[in-house]
Specification:
This protein is 22% helix and 32% strand. The protein is of the alpha+beta class and 313 residues long. It has a six-stranded mixed β-sheet, with helices on both faces. It starts with 5 loop residues before the first strand and ends with a helix.
């Protein structure tokens, strides 16, 4: 991005830890992503689904020496932890909330600062680079996350304050909207299958890993090509940011044709990721909360969908 570098605290997410000798085997049967693709240099997006393929959570999963950390919307951590505990009783794994063990920062145009910390983070999406107590993650659009062990947080915060401007979380979420990276929050839990938020286009779904909860539905949608709803980026005039899960309407249908996935202020307008029915998008007449509501305009996403490429993962 051409904007000056900045950082912000990623306070909207929490960290679920799965540790132990069976962590890989246990999570392989639960998640859409293939954990065998992950190592000390690679992380991934992913999701956990119901048997009907609806996402209970989405997350970024980061391997650790003895397991994994999953960064997800904070309101999802407690229910996901409780549900996973039910399946973990016969596996040698330990589940927990490790949010307090780390402070997480979002970084834009801050590779020079990472170098000061001894971190050389590759430009490749989903790359990892580490130093003791530090984990840096490259996002698909070039942004980075920096996870700092709690004991080093104050020192790192001081360095960030000296080198970069601190921005509100909205600026980070706006960059996420522009990158087309959808996410599940409490209001959208169990609404979408992974392809509806384009998760497969971002490497968060593996079609070669074998069985996991919801796999049959997710695979069927990919191979049969019958998906009628997917993620789009839109703009909305004004400063009022709609709630996640707010409905979107079109005169093409008598009921809602989609829901807001993520939204952030962009000055005199709001930019939005939303899951929409494709026939309503083709028609072009989209409005928030009712057919008579404020009009919305389509914007481009920075990637394209390619089912042939996607099924190679």
């Amino acid at each position: 991005m051409a904007n000056p570098g900045f950082f912000c605290k990623l306070t909207h997410e929490s960290l679920l830890a799965v540790r132990g000798v069976d962590a890989n085997k246990f999570l392989q049967g639960q998640l859409t992503c293939n954990l065998n693709y992950l190592d000390e240099n690679t992380c991934s997006l992913g999701a956990r689904c119901t048997p009907k393929g609806r996402m209970l959570s989405s997350f970024r999963i980061v391997p650790q020496a003895d397991g994994y950390l999953l960064a997800m919307a904070s309101e999802l951590l407690e229910p996901q932890l409780a549900e996973l505990q039910k399946f973990a009783v016969f596996s040698k794994v330990k589940l927990g909330d490790e949010t307090a063990s780390w402070t997480r920062f979002g970084l834009i145009n801050a590779d020079a600062l990472l170098s000061e910390l001894g971190i050389q983070l590759p430009a490749t999406a989903n790359s990892l680079a580490t130093q003791p107590g530090l984990v840096a993650i490259r996002l698909p659009d070039g942004r980075a996350e920096l996870w700092v062990a709690a004991g080093q947080a104050a020192t790192t915060q001081t360095l960030l304050d000296d080198r970069l401007s601190e921005a509100p979380l909205n600026d980070w979420l706006l960059a996420q909207v522009r990158a087309g990276i959808g996410q599940v929050f409490g209001a959208t839990r169990e609404l979408f299958i992974p392809q509806m938020i384009n998760l497969q286009a971002l490497g968060g779904v593996s079609f070669k890993k074998g069985c996991y909860t919801g796999q049959e539905i997710v695979a069927r949608m990919q191979y049969l090509g019958k998906l009628k709803r997917r993620l789009y980026r839109l703009s909305l005039s004004g400063a009022q940011i709609p709630d996640i899960g707010s409905e979107i309407f079109s005169p093409v249908h008598s009921s809602a044709v989609g829901e807001v996935v993520l939204a952030a202020s962009a000055g005199d307008c709001v930019e939005i990721l939303a899951v929409l029915q494709q026939d309503a998008v083709t028609d072009g007449r989209l409005s928030l909360q009712s057919v008579e509501g404020p009009g919305m305009h389509l914007l481009d996403l920075p990637y394209s969908l390619d089912s042939e490429r996607e099924i190679q993962r």
